[in-house]
Predict the structure.
Amino acid sequence: MEQLIQVYLLLLNILKMKFNNAKLSIGILYIGVIVLASIIALYFQIENHIILHFGNTIKTVYVYIFFIIIFTLPFDIFSHIKLNPKEEKKILEIISANIILFLIFILYGSIIFYSYHKQSLSLCILLSTISQLMLLPLQELSIKTFMKGKSDKIDGFSLIIIPEAPSYMTMNILRTFKDTIIVVPKHWTRQNFKNYKFHLERFKLNIKKKNHIRSYIFSIVINTILFIILYSYYSNTNISAVAFTIKVSLIFNIIGFVYILILPTLSQRGIYNIDNIMKKKDLNLFKENLNIYEENQDKNYNRSKAVESIFYPIPSTQSRLNSKIEKNFGLPNISRIIIFFASFSLSIIFKGVHGNAGKIGNWILPPSE
């Protein structure tokens, strides 16, 4: 009872916070719940209890997926209500997004179940890679179908304009099997054209430098290696395919948390690399665009270095203006992309990560920076 009272008081404090603090606190709370629940489930070997009640067949995997979707749905709704402006609060969209996620997870759960059941390492490697790559056409389908994106072109680069993009949505890079496309929320096109064009230059530069491709490769390789390690370990323990699928889901939630802790620095360095080039092009426009960006995001122009180094893959406005970091190895969107790709393993950590909690547009299209 005492623990429930503490959680209740924490929620009350979050409700009273300013937007920037509430956004971070809700993300921390959401991630904390997912990680804690995953650790407890692994400790008590919850897969055995689920199998005992529902059987040792693929249908039990579907029951588990249904459970994790229902478990996280209240947190999605709470985050959505708290963090979005009134005109963008659409509970039906949150529910619909979770139904779609359930269907996608049914597919991924079946792939994990099948690959382990066949006891083939090469099949595991192949299906892990394909499963992550499948997220790219899913992004394109979602943007064109559900977000009603409109194709456009500027300076030889392909664009998709999102006419009713939520205010939190940023410009993004979408890689299809045919082309690389810059996704542009409509509110950016309403800015002064010089600001709009200058911001587009950032994403053209990222495309030319192939930062997004390197992030994809890095994410897929790391996720696949970890998946292979889990497969190799559990294939020698004689656990069933159902138990393996559930364990992979829970363990990748914890792995996702580790990503959150260690990869923001790599993302920040990638952003600083692009910032250095953009500052030299036009420092005044660079400053103006930082303010435009921040107004649609955290409204947090400065923050402590400790908090920023762990929870923020995108540095604060002041950090970006004052940065003295010269060219260094970094990938602007790696901390978001690798967690997004980890969803192939039924990891739901991407739903609660800071910047994604209650913002379904960022689930399917994690910010490129």
Residues 1-17 have pLDDT under 50 and may be disordered. The first helix runs from residue 2 to 16. Residues 61 and 109 are 7 Å apart (CA to CA). Strands lie at 150-154, 157-162, 172-175, 180-185.
